[in-house]
Amino acid sequence: MSAPYIGIRAAPETERSVAGAFTGSAQNLGTPLTQNPIMAIFDNQSTVSVAVGFSGVSNWKTFSAGEALILDMRANHGQAQTFTFDLGTQFTVTATGGTGSFRLSILYAR
């Protein structure tokens, strides 16, 4: 007989996206966070560079066309084992023109 699983389980949150053509102004990337992410996948599936911002920072990272980032927020060791974004964090994207979309996929612990 196997022992019950006592670790955390990952669950997906709804994917957030903004489709081009982009306006040149900051646009909300979906809705604010309702769960604390343990993993976030930022994926620029557009034909232009896209600047991502959050929490009052308008340009946290610029993603070239086709670039993606997997941010593993549980890969830390030591004091910051539960590094994550705050609930209510609103991500924004800024770009001009282009086609395609910018997407954010999140996994959280339950």
Question: Summarize this, please?
Answer:
The chain has strands at residues 10-12, 16-19, 22-23, 27-28, 37-44, 50-54, 57-63, 68-72, 91-94, 96-97, 101-109.
Please count the beta strands (DSSP E, at least 2 residues each).
11
Approximately how much beta-strand content do the residues carry?
A: over 45%
Overall structural class, as computed from helix and strand content, comes to mainly beta
How many helices? The count is 0
Mean pLDDT over the full residue set: 89
| N-C termini distance | 25 Å
Largest sheet, described in full?
5 strands, antiparallel
Q: How much is the radius of gyration in Å?
A: 16 Å
H and E order: EEEEEEEEEEE
* Assembly form of the protein: single chain
- Helical amount among residues, as a percent range? under 10%
Low-confidence stretches: none
**Basic shape:** elongated
Structure in words:
With 110 residues, the protein is mainly beta. Helix content is 0%, strand content 46%. The radius of gyration is 16 Å and the shape is elongated.
